[in-house]
Design goal:
The protein is built from five helices and eleven strands, in the order βαββαβαββββαβββα. By secondary structure, it is of the alpha/beta class. Bound molecules: glutamine. It catalyses: N(2)-formyl-N(1)-(5-phospho-beta-D-ribosyl)glycinamide + L-glutamine + ATP + H2O = 2-formamido-N(1)-(5-O-phospho-beta-D-ribosyl)acetamidine + L-glutamate + ADP + phosphate + H(+); L-glutamine + H2O = L-glutamate + NH4(+).
């Protein structure tokens, strides 16, 4: 299974995401944002966390205009998998691959701590190794994590079972406590918490491992 992890100026979780994929058994290439093409036969693109372009304009807005972003969009539009974490989730909303926007945290502060998440759906290759309703602990680290959608979009996300994770104790003001959402075809996941920072006992927890393992296992058998 082949993964590509995108590197923007200011990415800081790119290596962590690569290690998480590698430990789950994926072959990983790092792809600079100025490249125009993804490696051949890539199964999943990881859009990592960080502060791309210093968070100027809006978090993720400049990265969404990088040359590689058109290829990420094309990959998703032909049914390819994409995982966007934190700044990566912000990039995916800015490209239009996922609905909604990540606004400034409700308390206007940077929040950096492990949080409890409820697994809202197991109907995706990202979440199938968890149990429905399972509570997992995954770290957050952001100042613009306040996921905001209008009522009609929220109703669609609920009707289509596209809320992947919700916060048990909402740290940022997100609509309906949403921590992560899936695309309509369930192959693009964006989430503010960092599963790649929870894949080793030294991280203080390993609840992120199941996501990378289930992805690699399902993409290998696909
Ligand atoms: N860890 C991250 O990816 C942070 C994303 C973004 N820079 C924010 O603070 O909201």
């Amino acid at each position: 299974m082949k993964a590509a992890v995108i590197v923007f100026p200011g990415s800081n979780c790119d290596r962590d995401m690569a290690v998480a994929f590698e430990r789950a058994g994926a072959q990983v290439s790092m792809v600079w944002h100025k490249d125009t093409a993804l490696p051949d036969d890539v199964d999943i693109v990881g859009v990592p966390g960080g502060f791309s372009f210093g968070d100027y304009l809006r978090c993720g807005a400049i990265a969404a205009k990088s040359p590689i972003s058109a290829s990420i969009k094309a990959h998703a539009e032909r049914g390819g998998y994409v995982l966007g974490v934190c700044n990566g989730f912000q990039v995916l909303t800015e490209t239009g691959l996922l609905p909604g926007a990540l606004m400034r945290n409700a308390n206007l502060k940077f929040v950096c701590k492990p949080v409890d998440l409820k697994v809202e759906t197991t109907q995706s290759d990202f979440t199938s190794d968890y149990d429905a309703g399972q509570v997992i602990s995954i770290p957050v680290a952001h100042h613009d994590g306040n996921y905001t959608v209008d009522d009609a979009t929220l109703a669609t996300l609920r009707d289509q079972d596209r809320i992947a994770f919700s916060y048990v104790d909402n740290p940022n003001g997100s609509t309906a406590d949403i921590a992560g959402v899936l695309s309509e075809n369930r192959r693009v996941l964006g989430m503010m918490p960092h599963p790649e920072r929870a894949v080793d006992a030294a991280h203080g927890g390993t609840d992120g491992v199941a996501m990378f393992r289930s992805l690699v296992a399902s993409l290998e058998t696909a």
